[in-house]
């Protein structure tokens, strides 16, 4: 032991004798510097535990920012479509899509989109700038139909195929679409007369159709040429051009068409890159393509990366991991509900036997997040916060469970934002004596607002200037400034992590969908027995988001009609928007500005033991509303009744 110590001491002293004095000093300096570097590393690691992840994310973000600047300046404009065409030239034989046992290469999808474009050009007489509504399920034709429209210079309106009559007709009018392309059997016949009156052409992705007023498209596509189309057809497209209309419930009313520009498409496509996804990854898309998550982050993000997509019609907890193993999936998408479904599925022996490295999504609860990691292995969860129409978003690029993002100086510099104090009862920001908003303190919950600048614009909603103006907040930190009101309450902690707290206004989220309370109320008041309805979302233990509930005032002399009200909501509302609980009240409380009070109703929930008002539950098996008993309440709490 002593001998080895002597050797360690002897070596440097020997070098000091043998080496020239200058080299000796250099050696000592190097040793000191190395020691200080090691000490600094451990100090920074202790003081700033996420420094490495912060630096990596900031460098990636800066690199992507320069790319976006380049695309803004380059002539002619380089779009995501051009990115796809380059990928198809580079590796035409690489698989782009897996779907229900079939494979589609980049080259095949390129040719199929050419056929779609030529068929629509001939049949629908489409010209650049014409808006086309897509009423399609998750299927490969969604992808190449959109690409075909992009080749014609036509923006696409992505319709939620769960919406019904009134909402469906509204969605056409606000984006001025003159053509709708639908999956076989998706279009309701009761809307056809109105569509014809408005001069809207309906095309079905089918070889044959016996319904008058509907044109078939699949037969025309199969006969069309697959040769490339001229770039001149989209010569008018630039970075500020509208690329898409994606529908969102926003804060109130019928679905609103958020205008998604080419710039926003590029920015959203970079999320995969910002999370570290590469061209070698295989991305599992099981979220709807009519949503920004499935379409922009999933499908368009994969085009930007040049990787492979596994497309699913809809999420299936029982097939999820077997699909991941079958297709060697490395990246999955989620929303809070789907993550919970995976954790609630029966346990199996091989649950950690998969290749999934990343999970990208939003809305997962902290307990589900922890359980997911414990059960399915070391998967890097990248929780997001963003809005389709918004100008501010966050990514949690660390392993911090529960946070929806992280604040850094680069992000705040390029996309200014702040949290302001918000009065929940009055549903408005708190202002000081000068009429300006008050910033929330660190650790305090506040309303997130993003400053509207040239770098972070808020384009708004198509055909709805009133709702666009409602999302604009003026005189926030100084007179004359303009911010985008997210309508969300968040909190920043002392480590710069961002936490989602709640939504404000007249929207709640259930089954991964935004539900506009005023739309549901309009449908309820069409029932013969209901005079007024106050719709809101309530929390259910063990479930993500809030489930629909309505306090209703009955017409004088009327009893609650359990069957007719059930038929009303089922016929006119998608499943996620139907109020599962009805509370009969003698009167509906109003605020001083004649808005219906919701806060107290939300807090009281739906426990029949805690209130005297009659309560009803939407029973999907009996196909009617039934009295909500304490036994039913317990069955819901124990998850014996599925919601």
Automatic annotation (TrEMBL):
Molecular function per GO: long-chain fatty acid transmembrane transporter activity; long-chain fatty acid-CoA ligase activity; nucleotide binding
GO CC list: endoplasmic reticulum membrane; plasma membrane
Keyword Nucleotide-binding: yes
Gene Ontology BP terms: long-chain fatty acid import into cell
Membrane topology, record value: Multi-pass membrane protein
Pfam family, one: AMP-binding
Location of the AMP-dependent synthetase/ligase domain: 86-406
Protein's cellular compartments: Cell membrane
Domain AMP-binding enzyme C-terminal: from-to ranges: 519-595
Reactions it catalyzes: a very long-chain fatty acid + ATP + CoA = a very long-chain fatty acyl-CoA + AMP + diphosphate; a long-chain fatty acid + ATP + CoA = a long-chain fatty acyl-CoA + AMP + diphosphate; tetracosanoate + ATP + CoA = tetracosanoyl-CoA + AMP + diphosphate
Highest taxon of source: Eukaryota
Principal EC category: ligase
Known EC number: 6.2.1.3
Keywords: Cell membrane, Fatty acid metabolism, Ligase, Lipid metabolism, Lipid transport, Membrane, Nucleotide-binding, Transmembrane, Transmembrane helix, Transport
Record-stated family: Belongs to the ATP-dependent AMP-binding enzyme family.
Protein name (record): long-chain-fatty-acid--CoA ligase
């Amino acid at each position: 032991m002593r001998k080895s110590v002597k050797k360690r001491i002897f070596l440097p002293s020997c070098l000091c004798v043998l080496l020239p004095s200058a080299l000796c000093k250099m050696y000592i300096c190097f040793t000191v510097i190395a020691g200080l570097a090691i000490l600094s590393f451990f100090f920074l690691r202790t003081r700033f535990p996420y420094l490495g992840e912060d630096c990596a994310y900031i460098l990636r973000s800066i690199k992507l920012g320069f790319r976006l600047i380049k695309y803004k300046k380059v002539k002619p404009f380089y779009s995501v479509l051009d990115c796809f065409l380059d990928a198809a030239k580079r590796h035409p034989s690489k698989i782009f899509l897996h779907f229900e046992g079939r494979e589609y290469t980049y080259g095949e999808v390129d040719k199929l989109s050419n056929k779609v474009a030529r068929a629509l050009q001939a049949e629908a007489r489409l010209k650049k700038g014409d808006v086309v509504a897509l009423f399609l399920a998750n299927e490969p034709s969604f992808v190449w139909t959109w690409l075909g429209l992009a080749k014609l210079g036509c923006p696409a309106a992505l319709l939620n195929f769960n919406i019904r009559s009134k909402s469906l007709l509204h969605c056409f009018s606000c984006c001025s679409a003159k053509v709708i392309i639908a999956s076989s059997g998706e279009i309701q016949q009761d809307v056809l007369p109105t569509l014809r009156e408005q001069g809207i052409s309906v095309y079905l992705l089918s070889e044959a159709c016996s319904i008058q007023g509907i044109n078939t498209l699949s037969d025309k596509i199969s006969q069309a040429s697959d040769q490339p189309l001229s770039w001149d057809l989209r010569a008018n497209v630039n970075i500020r051009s509208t690329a898409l209309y994606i529908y969102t419930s926003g804060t109130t009313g019928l679905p609103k068409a958020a205008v998604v520009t080419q710039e926003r498409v590029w920015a959203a496509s970079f999320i995969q890159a910002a999370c570290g996804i590469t061209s070698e990854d295989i991305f599992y898309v099981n979220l709807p393509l009519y949503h920004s998550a499935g379409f922009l982050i999933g499908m368009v993000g994969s085009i930007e990366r040049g990787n492979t997509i596994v497309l699913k019609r809809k999420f299936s907890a029982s097939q999820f991991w077997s699909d991941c193993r079958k297709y060697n999936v490395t990246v999955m998408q989620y929303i809070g509900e789907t993550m919970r479904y995976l954790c609630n599925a029966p346990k199996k022996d091989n649950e950690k036997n998969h290749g999934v490295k990343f999970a990208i999504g939003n809305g997962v609860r902290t307990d589900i997040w922890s359980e997911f990691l414990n059960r399915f292995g070391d998967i890097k969860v990248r929780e997001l916060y963003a809005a389709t129409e918004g100008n501010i978003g966050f990514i949690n690029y660390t392993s911090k469970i529960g946070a929806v993002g992280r604040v850094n100086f680069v992000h705040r510099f390029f996309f200014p934002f702040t949290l302001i104090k918000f009065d929940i009862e009055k549903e408005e920001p708190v202002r000081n004596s000068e009429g300006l908003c008050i910033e929330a303190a660190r650790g305090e919950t506040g309303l997130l607002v993003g400053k509207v600048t040239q770098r972070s614009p808020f384009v708004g909603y198509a055909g709805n200037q009133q709702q666009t103006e409602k999302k604009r907040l003026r005189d926030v930190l100084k007179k004359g400034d303009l911010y985008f009101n997210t309508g969300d309450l968040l909190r920043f902690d002392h480590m710069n992590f961002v936490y989602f707290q709640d939504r404000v206004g007249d929207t709640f989220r259930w089954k991964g969908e935004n539900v506009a309370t005023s739309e549901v109320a309009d449908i309820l008041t069409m029932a013969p027995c209901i005079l007024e309805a106050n719709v809101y979302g309530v929390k259910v233990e063990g479930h993500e988001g809030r489930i629909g509930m309505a306090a209703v005032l009955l017409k004088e002399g009327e009893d609650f009609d359990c069957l007719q009200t059930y038929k009303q909501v089922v016929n006119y509302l998608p499943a996620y928007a139907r109020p599962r609980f009805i509370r009969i009240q003698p009167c509906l409380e109003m605020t001083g500005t004649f808005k219906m009070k919701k806060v107290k109703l939300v807090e009281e929930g739906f426990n029949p033991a805690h209130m005297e008002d009659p309560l009803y539950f939407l029973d999907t098996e009996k196909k009617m509303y039934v009295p909500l008993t304490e036994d039913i309440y317990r069955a819901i709490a124990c998850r014996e009744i599925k919601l």
